[in-house]
């Protein structure tokens, strides 16, 4: 109504302080609550006027305020304390009495909110203020004559005050109150005070804890109230480190045994707490168990791990009584806690006894019918693997089981440490064969591929992305051929067909790492050609964008010379792309592209880059792309070029790049040696021999950060270690001049490489003292037997044309918003204009 509108209207000319005073005096409750929520801002702006004019009105409003305003005030007072808007003295004078006044509000939620604020204030108040304003009034508020709420508040305040006073004051003034509350007639008060005994024990020291706190805990552990006994048990477990061996063996151990024996007869909530603290209990009491006690405790844990499973039946959930369902939920929590404590139990029994004592329990937890239990054991799987060390082969089958789990939550938990787990499996298992990594685990690759397909088929793309990122560890776990035939084509498929950009980028990066560690040159060149033709020259602009992402990963993972040799020209050719988005993305990438060049060896490539940039500046019609081109030109002009010789300012980067380059050359040498060995012995060179060769040729004096993520360690600096290796290396490189050209299917690669260097790939290798030349025309590049090539990489597979004309061929991504026609678009929003 007009009257209500007039009553709720506030003069716009009022200052913040005046408006706050007016609303607290004459406004509605919602307006007053808004002012109180804004109190920290007013305190920062004008503390003096806020304290003088606004705070008295706040006090008046709180006397009759509802729950919402009270909760808002408690939060605002806490924020003012944390902001340090006023001094502690001023805060104590203005706010402390208001907080203390509302501590015993009839609403429990409001009372707890004010209590939390007070406990934070206690941390910063001086001792004298604490004594006069809080401790002295507490003596009367902790009496039996006060309300239960008042006594509960007193318990929590006492727990906080203990750390603020000296031992003498605590013994004389605080401990009598603590004892009184521990013997309160209400079980809620006894339980609350019991939970504060941990803080009190840490404040009074070991001697007083033994003489005062321990007797109270022993008495409370025998209390008639189950919640009090539970609080006493949990406090004892948390204080185990304080007590000496005698106290543990003579006092605490009997209590724990009694608690465990009675737990199955008591409420299931006690079992939940017991199962959760079991690991800490085993650690704290380790060394004082007799063999019989040790065995009984272990059997108790095993019993908890299968609790509720014996009662499984085929009834429908709708037919089960509610109390039974509630009990089953508690049993699930118990088994979940047992899974959480499993690593601690391995330490308890000693990893050497795992197979005999705990393997069957581990098997049950990995096959538990409930997802939370399997999820928890999947989280612990890496810790279990580390503890087992050389016995890790014992849990190979359980790894496969969890990888094949029907729940993606379990898979997501497992893959967090998948690279470390697989590394332990491949190096720590006693049954692992020297000549073949993970040969004792034949189901690993099918399980990994099935896990990826299951993640891809779900809507949980983050799990899929994480899994693809973790697959980057596979070159250090399984052979190069296994990756090539089982995983590499799948990465291509994801890059070409998946609709989630982070997933596509994860697949692209992992594919680049697979390529980086591929052991066969012919396979490497097939992958490179596929990247260039199907992505860089693809009919869909979306694929060409992914090609630029791939180029960025290539720059990061490979050496500069590798990028210049294979990807430099295909990348800068996209300056002529008909889609503005592609040209725009390329402009952002150009500084990184330029950073791969070395002068004077790559002077011709620099000229081509400059020519492409000039064309963009002169011919670009899209205003958004042109603006980015201009910014990119300024950035390119400011860049300092890297020289062939080492420069001081680029020393570390150049050294890292040389390490990458040397390892790429090492792959070529290893392949040639493998061929020679096959000719001589008819046996292939193993991955172990390659790793040994790589280690033997490392430069021991260099220790540099790795440029590849933790799951894929970066290459190490290598130098030929003997004159024989130097001669062999020279021989391999010189032989490449006499070989024939590539098969026709490598035509584009040859064209790309020939543009990069007319005489071959020139690189200065430290330790050789001369410039070595490596041509692309090596015997190892010749076409393999077609029968051994998968259909995806078959020479007969038609490859896309190098031109990106607007033909009639159909592409999965070339319709709708991702068609092949030129359009104007920005990176943030793709605007199609067919």
Automatic annotation (TrEMBL):
Organism, as annotated: Gorilla gorilla gorilla
Bias type Basic residues, positions: 825-834
Family annotation (Gene3D superfamilies): Leucine-rich Repeat Variant
SUPFAM superfamilies: ARM repeat (SSF48371)
Keyword match rRNA-binding: no
Principal cellular location given in the protein's record: cytoplasm
UniProt repeat feature HEAT, residue ranges: 174-211, 213-251
Subcellular location: Cytoplasm
Job description of the protein: Putative regulatory subunit of serine/threonine-protein phosphatase 4.
This protein's UniProt keywords: Coiled coil, Cytoplasm, Phosphoprotein, Repeat
Biased composition (Low complexity): 708-723
Cellular component annotations (GO), alphabetically ordered: cytoplasm
Basic and acidic residues: compositionally biased ranges: 674-698
Keyword field contains DNA damage: no
Composition-biased stretches (Polar residues): 783-819
Domain of life: Eukaryota
Subunit record text: Serine/threonine-protein phosphatase 4 (PP4) occurs in different assemblies of the catalytic and one or more regulatory subunits. Component of the PP4 complex PPP4C-PPP4R4.
Disordered: region residues: 674-727, 783-834
Protein's UniProt name: Serine/threonine-protein phosphatase 4 regulatory subunit 4
